[in-house]
Amino acid sequence: MRHLNKIIFLNSANIPYAEVLLDGNVHFAGTQGVGKSTVLRALLFFYNADKMRLGIQQGQKSFEEFYFRYSNSYIVYEVKTEHSAYSIMTYRSQGKAVFRFIDAPYEKSWFVDDSGRVESDWIRIRERIIGDCKSPTADCKSPTADISAKIETYEQYRNIIFGNTHDRSHRYDKYAIVESAKYQNIPRSI
């Protein structure tokens, strides 16, 4: 069964770096201001990709301003599959949250260098992903990870993760967490 395995924050939402494991029952508890709502909104965004339905009140920073304040701000979602895992990189491009699908489990070294600095250049990140997947110890499915083009619309993203693609090449089929042409009720119920 496919499921969201973890959420990684990189310079996102006032969090320099954090990995939140979601591979079982998860309970959020803490005092005000520790990040419970921040994590829950990122979780909701994974499933509905609708920044208007995240409970952000008028007067608060917008989703993009809060989660993707810097050019090196990212949220990475790792989805566990029957055989391995893949990653979904979310970041800000031209003022809007966009996505890239990476057919490999998340690796910190893709984004963070040895000195702890988070990379902002997509070309370098891409080279690191491909380089990690050529490594003999990597858990990648192929010698070079398949990296999607930038997914710029929320509708296209939802179509991919909910298996509603009509792409004849079936390139995005492997990223579906379910398969349904009538998935619209899933994000609505969330």
Number of helices: 5
- Placed side by side, the strands forming the largest sheet appear as 2-1-3-4-5
Radius of gyration: 16 Å
Mean pLDDT: 84
Q: Pick out the low-confidence regions.
A: none
Main pleated sheet: 5 strands, antiparallel
Number of strands: 5
Anisotropy-based shape: globular
Distance between the termini: 19 Å
Which labels suit this protein?
190 residues, alpha+beta, 5-stranded antiparallel sheet, 5 helices, 5 strands
What does this entry look like structurally?
By secondary structure, the protein is α+β, with helices and mostly antiparallel strands. The chain has helices at 36-48, 63-67, 122-134, 154-161, 185-189; strands spanning 3-12, 15-21, 74-80, 85-93, 96-102. It has a five-stranded antiparallel sheet. A hairpin with a 2-residue loop joins β1 (3-12) and β2. It is globular. The protein starts with a strand and ends with a helix.
Topology:
Elements: E1 3-12, E2 15-21, H1 36-48, H2 63-67, E3 74-80, E4 85-93, E5 96-102, H3 122-134, H4 154-161, H5 185-189
Antiparallel strand pairs: 1-2, 1-3, 3-4, 4-5
Summarize the structure.
With 190 residues, this protein is of the alpha+beta class.
